[in-house]
Amino acid sequence: MLFKKKDKRDRVLIKKQIAYLTPLIGNGAEFLYRDGCIGSGEGWKYWRNFGDWKKKVRQYKYVILGENYYNPDAARYIKQFNPKCKVILFYWNKIVTEDYKKLLDEPNLDAIYTFEEDDAEEYNIKLNTTFYTKRLQLPENKIENDVVFLGRAKDRMNEILDLEKTLKKNKVKTDFHIVTSEKDYVDYKDYLVMVSKAKCILDFNAYNQRGLALRTMESLFHKKKLITTNKHIKDHPFYNKNNIFIIGEDNIKDIKKFINSPYEEIDQEIIDYYDFDNWIQRFE
Prior knowledge:
Helix content: 25-40%
Structural class: alpha/beta
Number of domains: 2
CATH superfamily of the largest domain: Glycogen Phosphorylase B
Shape: elongated
Largest sheet: 5 strands, parallel
Radius of gyration: 20 Å
CATH architecture of the largest domain: 3-Layer(aba) Sandwich
């Protein structure tokens, strides 16, 4: 078995609202709060007074907090009402800012995890994967595009545009949405419609990360082919050359052949390893 079963009622993930997490709310096994820990000031006050949170704090042995909008008052508050509770910080992003680095010294944290292997080694913290959920299904639509991409420009705008030009030169039909401001925002439900109409998903990693990005999880759970810049993806058990094309390693002249070849099924036990229900049980 790739994972061990534990008591699912002893832990909770608290994270800012992310649309792809919505199906997990009210799961019963792991109750997930949207906008759980959303910063200081009025945001923190909202989090603190969310429903009967004091009672919920007391029932959990583990509380996992995301690094985005993390507030040290959250960990202190949890410890105040449940001193035996293990408060865990999980980095959903690569540690590249000073604010992220400061969290490594937070005194009220019992453990720190990251999805990024390089950060785990550099900062001597624990490693857990990215996750997704099999509760989320794609709508049924006719295939209209070869490759879909949605992501922020960050420091990679030119590289993304160059890749799109290369794909088009190889007769690949693209559906690229590069987010440069809030007006470019695409709701996750709308994005899933875009995915349902494409044969492949593009994963263009930032900061040379090794950890698995959300786009990789989408391709795995929704059985879509993946085009990625992450060369380390070959180290994972779901890697299949017929399903995953690595930019910079695989021959770009073969991209159209790759896209049009059938998707090869991945063992369900491997997929389940990355499902939320099993992911949250790996924190200790």
